[in-house]
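I am still getting used to backbone structure tokens and would like to learn alongside you. Would you supply a protein for us yourself, any chain you care to pick? Start from the sequence, derive the backbone structure tokens from it, and show both lines together. Go ahead whenever you are ready, and we will take it from there.
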Amino acid sequence: MPSDPLEPGKWLKTSAGLVSVALHLLPFAGIAFLWFVGALRDRLGELEDQFFATVFFGSSLLFLAMLFTLAAAVGAMILAFGQGTAGVPDSVAFHFSRTFAYNIVNIYMVKMAGVFLMSTSTVVIFTKIAPRWVALLGFGLALILLFVSSHFSWTFVAFPLWVLLMSICLLIDEFSQKPRTDRPH
């Protein structure tokens, strides 16, 4: 979707197929993110602070809920546009859907991603489950997502890249440690 909430829907003519494929893959990304959250909480174990765990877990669930809400709104736009009704891009319903999707992404979803980064980075600093520079990068990206994300289109990539970086750190740490005997295999 274009970053301009007033864009008249030209992207539907050129990108609807690609967006539709992405929408069908999105639930798998959500499942992967839930696995990441679970792996992170498992790695924290007894070190998990209740306050930050609540903010971390709550923001992750809110982020996913908004991501799926966004996907439903964009999917509805694609389906409505695909019906071939000539007046769809000029209709009030289309304008509402487009603005709704824009607000979900640019105001709410990206802010929850910033809260997730902030709380997770705080947990990383306190527990040392990842390198300190990863947490500091997370703080910087969180500030960008919370305060200036609507001005720069590249900021939407910051969140998944940081999650990937954190996942790599967790995997490296997990495979470099001796096998744990406190959990069943």
Observations:
- The mean pLDDT is 83.
